[in-house]
Amino acid sequence: MPAEIDWFFQRADWLHVLTIPVFTGVVGFLINWSGLWMLFSPVRFHGVTVPGMRQLSRVLPRKVQEVPGILQGGIGWQGIVPARAAKMGSIAVDKAIAKLGTPAEFYQQLEPDQIAEHIVQVFEPELPQMIDQIMRREHPALWRDLPPRARAAVVRRVQAQLPGVVRTVTDEIGEHIDQLLDPKIMVINHFQRHPALVVRIFRDFGQRELNLMVAFGFIFGFGLGIPVAVLDHWFAQWWLLPVLGVVVGWATNALGMWLIFEPPEPRRVLGIKVHGLFLRRQDQAAEVYARIIADDVITLENIGDFLLDGPRGDRTRQMLASAMRPAIDNAAGPVRGAVRVAVGSRQFDNIRDAMALEAVDRTIEPFRDPDFSRRQADKINALIAQRTKELPPRDFVEMMRSAIKEDEWMLYAHGAIMGFGGGLLHLALFGVGGPA
């Protein structure tokens, strides 16, 4: 063996040998740099529609179908993370948000009493105009014939009933919130509409680790290039560098992903502590994640939108309108019977129902007040941050990696292709290796 080593050093084409690790290091850096771009950019699909691609995609292998755009009939690219935003949202709810408790318990943390006070504060000044509009629409003659003093009395009675009506609304929402609000659907839909939020979750707390992964691409590539240089010199085959370049490219990306997410628990390997880069800062990640969810996803504003305009919006409106009708009857006071006789039972019910439905929209509208929603966001933020910090490391990894995991093969394939190209480029510049 010493004679063979001596022969290697004496007969080596050192320019050829030494440039191989440099090449694989640079290629490793470029692989991880471009792989990072593939992870996050572009946020929306960019590409072209190909006639017949949608039909052809159904018979393509499953892995090919996973390439962004293929199932939609296009060829192009969308960042892997934003393309899988909905899946990350689903797992995030299962792993962290669902641990906050049931929707009812979560709603109680938002302090319904404060919500009710805010609704009354916002709604009360609008009551006279709302009553006037409804009465002019439903029974203009009756409203026109009422003396101003009588109209003012109606408004005062409704205003006096308002706190009770609003309390009924917030109590009804709280009692039936498990049936009216689905946090999983809400989060998934919001992430689908705003995939840039998922990118922010990674970028805002993990940019340092992502940059480190790119730098390690050069280190991994250079280290792997040393045995490649020895093998290339030893066997002196033209095809060896491109083939080994595939191995180096694949391994460089795989090592980069491992560096970020594995191992989830600290371990010692050869006396060196190893721990996934993201996992080392789970607490900071939890703070960033919770702030984004509280400010942009599970907001009081979005809850109000979901309650009225979501898949169960009709049920919400009907339930709240039914709850309000007795209170509106009470607002009519002792003249209710006389008014019912004067305008007819059907017309009276129409006025009451119109007022109830109008009141539903007006009482939920303060949910959409951005300033009030931001104040409530602090409570949501504290809850989600606490639960995310308490997640077992393996669950935290799954939550963060879910947007990437099933598409990692694309990153590895991209690394293999770039490694193959790097091998061909070195071959073109320096020729076949071997003894000088």
From TrEMBL:
Keyword Cytoplasm found: no
Membrane-spanning ranges: 20-40, 210-230, 236-261, 409-432
- Which keywords, in A-to-Z order, does the entry hold? Membrane, Transmembrane, Transmembrane helix
User: What name does UniProt use for this protein?
Assistant: DUF445 family protein
